[in-house]
Amino acid sequence: MKTKIILDVDTGIDDALAITFALGRKDAELIGVTTCFGNVTFETASRNSLNLLDLLGRSDVPVYAGAKGPGDESEWQVREHLYRIHGNNGIGNVELPVSKRKVEEKKAWQFMAEACRKYRDELILICVGPLTNLAKAIELDREAVGLCKKIVIMGGALTVKGNVTPYAEANIYNDVKAAQKVIDSGLDLYFVGLDVTLQTIITGNDIMRWKQLDNEKAGKLYEAASYYYSNEFEVVGGAMHDPLAVEAALDPEIITEWFPVNLMVEQEGVTKGRMIGDKDLLNEPRKRIHYGLKVNGERFVKDFEETVLNVIS
After folding, report:
1. What integer best gives the mean pLDDT of the chain?
2. What is the CATH number of the domain that holds 164?
3. Which residue segment(s) compose the domain that 157 sits in?
4. The whole model's pTM is what?
5. N or C: which end of the chain has fewer CB within 10 A?
6. Phi/psi of residue 254, each to 5°?
């Protein structure tokens, strides 16, 4: 039986790669994509997700729009450096064919909670953007969210520097209150942070294989990936943040060391967004967070490349 998954995304380029990878997994069924702010506005994330799914021939996968900003209380202003990383449209300025579909009427967090209650341990939630949607789903129906098989989060930086400040990783930093609410829920959480994603490096030669397929799907994905992985590097290549969360959700042994720990998120000051051990829970026998520290990066890159090739061939 295939594991059902929901991908919660802020669809820039690495999210697009994660969606593509998820669609190619023979052991998974992507039952929905939920979107929020982050790399782009939530409207752009929704549009990019719809366009990509349709391009890949998966217009059967619904998209649910979620939070427009931290706490869903204000519109998100995309930071200037994100335009350099993901392009003006979030897909490396690549023009995808425009989907005729619209997002579903139901909010992202409503879909999450209802799906958890319906599918229970057949479902995994994979969150690769700010944790606003997940926090709101827990607030709406914590019991239901607790019924799902697993919650996997791309976020955090424990043993390495952050990517938005020296202390913080972007997904956690972009809504620190939501991140803390998720941690405070008491649910078991699996964090795939920069500590392991920076050990998964795709190269220019890997990406070039997509271009050689010479079809629209492969060409568009190649253009987007080339923009993302060559934007600030002399040599084409870089880490695969969001796709690794998909792999870790479905094949947790790809992470060769999970660190059990109770964490908290610093809420303000220069260390805002830093995840650090919660001293009040230091002696708690139950560790509610499993944090990835080591990964079989070589195997993952190979699996990722072959899976994506099957989707875009």
Report:
1. 95
2. 3.90.245.10
3. 3-312
4. 0.97
5. N
6. -65, -30
CA 140 to chain CA mean position, Å = 21
Which residues, at least 6 apart from 284, have a Cβ–Cβ distance to it below 8 Å? Answer: 262
Q: Write down the catalytic residue from 10, 72, 195, 242.
A: 10
Q: Residue 236 has what pLDDT? A: 61
Q: Is 81 a catalytic residue?
A: no
pLDDT score of 235 more than 90: no
Cross-strand pairs, 261: 289
Question: What is the sign, positive or negative, of the torsion defined by CA atoms of 152, 157, 162, 163?
Answer: negative
Number of domains in the chain: 1
Q: CA distances (Å), 37 to each of 69, 131, 301, in order?
A: 6, 10, 27
Q: Say how far apart CA 95 and CA 13 lie, in whole Å.
A: 13
Q: Does residue 168 contact residue 273 with C-beta atoms inside 8 Å?
A: yes
In the set 241, 242, 290, 303, the catalytic residue is: 241
261-301 tens-digit pLDDT: 999 999 999 999 999 999 999 899 999 999 999 999 999 99
Is 290 catalytic? The answer is no
> Does 231 have pLDDT greater than 60?
no
